[in-house]
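Sample intake sheet
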Amino acid sequence: MSDVAIHIEKIGKQYHIGRKVNQHKNLYDVLTDAFVSPFRRAGKLLRGQATGATDLDETIWALRDVSLEIKHGEIVGLIGRNGAGKSTLLSILSHITEPTEGYAEIRGRVGSLLEVGTGFHPELTGRDNIFLNGAILGMRRAEILRKFDEIVSFAEIEKFIDTPVKHFSSGMYVRLAFAVAAHLEPEILIIDEVLAVGDAAFQKKCLGQMREVSRGGRTVFFVSHNMEVIENLCRRGIVLQDGQVAFSGEMKHAVDYYLHSIDGSRPGHGSHIIDLSNAAGRPARYRPLLQRLELYTDQGRPLKDGLPMGAGLKAYIHFKLEEPTSNFGACLAFDSLFGQRVFTAHSIFEPHSAWGERMGEQVFVCEIPSLTLVPGEYKITMALDIDKSERDSVEDAAHLRILRSDYYGTGWSPWNGMFVLKHRWHLSGPQEQ
């Protein structure tokens, strides 16, 4: 028997975005289209738009020419930006959608957990859905019964097992869905980033269960935006970019490739002056009050190539107050590229913060005498508070590279952790002969 669990050969998936495809229409729909179409075409002509078939039937390729092989027992991480084609690929492997071209061979029973709401009948109870999913996987009732108590215990929903799942919270739904997918002995487990719905303790339990599944010789195909989790769990990584495989190899190298591809395409990369007026990381509900960030060394030199470990940082935050106020503040938050918060510098921590009433263009200056982060890349997130509520924020506003330096004066530089601290060592007691 071949050791290949999933074989993907030149898969492509095309979507029509200009019109609805293969939709059954009733008489009302047909008559409405016949009446409206002339007016719609006339409007397009007035706006100078084409009215040909291509305009009514535009297509995009969510995946194109994707070829992969995944072996039995592998835990493979799939990463990429939103819209890269990750969920489309998993939907094809789960037989939810068919590819436009190419094919995929799945050698084994598949258990999928793609999104909240997939795979359960909302009117059925948790108990009924466990048996329904087991039957879909081809399991006999006796096999499902042997696993039933283990599933319910893992999901921690004993009190609600006979409640229709339409009344479940999203967290309860995901807990039961994962427990069913992982315990009903699928040979291939396909999981999209639904575990983010659960709490931290349950996520940890799920990750442990996925490791157990792999140790049993079964295959796990896992999608996540949490780089720390996916690097810890997976040996092999695949990076999708614009619907194609951009990288396939060791998980650590896949994460590095992905993070550097994001960093390299970020506006303002390599500049010490970052324009925030149209920043992509700003929530749509906020007005652009944060306008510009400038980064300098403690000597006043523009920060372009990175900051040595333990050196000082000076940040100028340009912002706007649209109304007179004396109650305002700003923060710089430093995150690892995995999304872990490392340090937050906030103006509220300044003892002498009686700024007085201000309005219009303002500049906060934040000075950090010694930034003792370990060498590596960090993301800076910014926020502006007015009258004790957040009024603007920009996630991933800038990247900061911390460079190796002889911080301890020994010639050694730290190789793990998140920050460095001055410390001393000595031997206690008399020297042994």
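Comment: The chain has three domains: 18-57, 65-264, 273-403. The domain at 273-403 is CATH 2.70.50.60 (Coagulation Factor XIII; Chain A, domain 1).
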